[in-house]
Amino acid sequence: MKRMAVIIISVVFVSLAMGVSPSPALADADTVETGRLLAILLDSGRVTIAGVQALINDPEKGDKGFTPDVFEEGVIAKFKDRSGVDLTKLKTEKVPAQAKQLLPMLVEAGKKVVATYQPILNKQGLAYKNFIPATWGTQAAAIFTARTGTYLKQTTLDEVLRNPKNKADEFEAAVMKKFADPAYPRQGEKIVNEMVDGGKTTRVMLPLFHVKGCLPCHGEPKGERDISGYIREGGKLGELAGAISVKLSQR
Ligand code: HEC
Question: Between the CA atoms of 106, 197, 195 and 22, what dihedral angle is there, to the nearest 10 degrees?
């Protein structure tokens, strides 16, 4: 027992002395949890948009009533289902202080996107409005990053990349290879996290797998255009669609 402790202490000491981060396992738990919650919140927003897609695409209807407040209610409910965290009672919820500060800012960024799109959403006679989970997600993440300095993005592997702004960096590409392995759990919001920059930054990634609703655009027939005008990638149910990637400075 004693000898084990000595070995562990020496390993930590040697790592510190060499100036390398001791091990990914030692990433600060609060920072990792903040990253995980932000990723789930961004995806909850995507799912909220997916849920109103038929309404949004209805060319007969003018005013859709999908206001920023309606969006907010939806995303709060989805996020609570998935994370157990009630954003309406965030002050008393057991989440890290950094998450208490950042989660509401992501909701605000998401509402801003919905607000900007109102004239297009409420236009009668137009079916496809280029307002889909991915366009909302790309824009909400960009506003959030600009306002908070916290890197947040949705990304995917180069072979199926649509928007070049979502291109993966080396770390993201390597983690997504792991996610793509059929042995990687499809359930349970299982993230990957790692410390980089000598321990100054924590990276967190949440995988996104194809569900039925994704396939009209990302599925078969491969090579044919979808409603958004992009080429279908031939994705299949349960396959990796991409990931949400967060970088946080270690507190
Ligand atoms: C209506 C068609 C449509 C549907 C349905 C759809 N997507 Fe997409 N997806 C797109 C478009 C268009 C983009 C590029 C958006 C942009 O400009 O940022 C995109 C981008 C993405 C990206 C970002 C990487 C990239 O290629 O730019 C991911 C990840 C993604 N989609 C996953 C999904 C998942 C998972 C689902 C189902 C839950 C889904 N999509 C459903 C059309 C769709």
Answer: -150
